[in-house]
# Entry
Amino acid sequence: MKFKRVLLALILAMTMLFATSAVALADAPTTVTITWDGTGAVGGGMDSGVSNGGFTTGGSAIAGTYTATDSNNNPYSYGVDSFSSYLNAGVTNGFIQTGVARVSSYVPMYGNGGQLDTAFVGVDGGTASMAFRSTTNYAQMVDATYTYQLAGGHNILTNADYYEIDRFISDGRGNSGEVSAYGNGQATLDCMSSEASGVWNLTLGRGAGCYTDANFSATGSSGYFSATGVGNDSVTFNGLGISSGGGALSIIANWVNSFSIGDYSLTAH
# Structure
């Protein structure tokens, strides 16, 4: 897997970046918008003081928009502002990586912060596009991309000689969900909504007050797909009727010619 080392390094770098709050401090209601169209690499982000978002992308052709907003609204005087981050981007022969870390929470009612979500796509010999949106507040992290997806209602699209896709979310308490894929040809990942908090169940591909849109399809000579939930007490693949106690539960496919799964959504507790 050509991009695996890059992916792991980027997730680690973004986690360190978020944890050290080293992007752009926001003392008043602030929106940062970054647009790009060209070649090479670009990255940026925002540290709101309670949540942090950022992105990096690079390739022979890159184009897109990234917007992050610190609302500085302090709902209910809980001392935790609302934050949002949205990326819509495309790349040729390269990668796109983005993510958000929720650092603070109103602890007496909603437990600790420490939630993290990331998305990655990398391609060689082709193109990819991604739409990713995350919001945080005093209670939780919510990824709700209804009306924010790519054309056709998708979150990641590829058409390449080789691609890698990864979507990850964790709640800082030992619960997480992840979808990973690689292969050649065309691939489509829908992951419209996810949730993580310091008290409630973690969800990947479902929740956030939206209908479930969590599917993956691919065509090509061969490829790989996996969906994994890790839970302290339980993991449930809601659309498949599969569940387990605490630990890790995975769906894995090594496919030839084509593959599709209609609902990989999961809940971890």
About this structure: Residues 4-72+80-268 form one domain. The chain has one domain: 4-72+80-268. The chain has two helices and twelve strands.
